[in-house]
């Protein structure tokens, strides 16, 4: 994986390294934008899920679900395509910055990752993943099971850096976010359709919600306590799904949105049930369906104009390898809700993230 750890010959060296890393952490933390409750500490942000949150984990995987090439990242630092499915920062970064953890949330599989990066959290998300185990398998990306195994590896490394007790503190007090489900609905169920041979929509959304609930229990068993899980978005309104399922006028694909709403209802119910089963947990259901739909329906309220096309290429189908250096991009990305045919722009995320944090952050404490 490319991680470099110093070999320590004595316990005093271990203590010195831990102190040094903690000092680096203290002096490099970003000032929180949102106001935290008194005496509340968020030592790290840890993220699981799909391309909405992926900060580069797919870069070294053998998959077509990649974006570590132009024009991706054209508004990132030094126009650097890092593997974020966006023109700039993604919610992983923006949330880390807003809660004062750090400016950017690194991908766990980034070979340049430093030991000090682990202390304040990492991103395990992988573009193309889903709650349904078949979803990541079809595109050769990290499943949630794979991400869980990497999280276990992360915990072991954290113990070697800061010790057992500090690791327990970090695990118990960090915020965990799980963002998945869009690819299950849009790709596995409605586009590839092979799951339709096994499940109708109610049964498939049951599968998704059950797998989501199981994943929450898995990370709880490993020490996570403050866990937020995002709803599915209005996936039928993203440009590619308008193209594939919205008819000749490319309206929002109603079947996709209805499936998303059904899943969201089941996920919320599962979470409510889990709260009684997982002592000392703070489980937060985060609705992104309605805030994003409001941006799509009322873009002028957010300084946006174009909702049915992405900025990359024609904007109606290009995503991942189809959005590449051969494509032109729009003249003004700040007019667009979507960067490519599937993922929002940084400007859209900057409208969403503060709204979400203001509504839900206190529920973690």
From TrEMBL:
<dbReference type="InterPro" id="IPR050592">
    <property type="entry name" value="GDSL_lipolytic_enzyme"/>
</dbReference>
<dbReference type="GO" id="GO:0016298">
    <property type="term" value="F:lipase activity"/>
</dbReference>
<protein>
    <submittedName>
        <fullName>GDSL esterase/lipase</fullName>
    </submittedName>
</protein>
<dbReference type="InterPro" id="IPR008265">
    <property type="entry name" value="Lipase_GDSL_AS"/>
</dbReference>
<keyword id="KW-0732">Signal</keyword>
<dbReference type="InterPro" id="IPR036514">
    <property type="entry name" value="SGNH_hydro_sf"/>
</dbReference>
<dbReference type="InterPro" id="IPR001087">
    <property type="entry name" value="GDSL"/>
</dbReference>
<dbReference type="InterPro" id="IPR035669">
    <property type="entry name" value="SGNH_plant_lipase-like"/>
</dbReference>
<comment type="similarity">
    <text>Belongs to the 'GDSL' lipolytic enzyme family.</text>
</comment>
<dbReference type="Pfam" id="PF00657">
    <property type="entry name" value="Lipase_GDSL"/>
</dbReference>
<feature type="signal peptide">
    <location>
        <begin position="1"/>
        <end position="32"/>
    </location>
</feature>
<dbReference type="GO" id="GO:0006629">
    <property type="term" value="P:lipid metabolic process"/>
</dbReference>
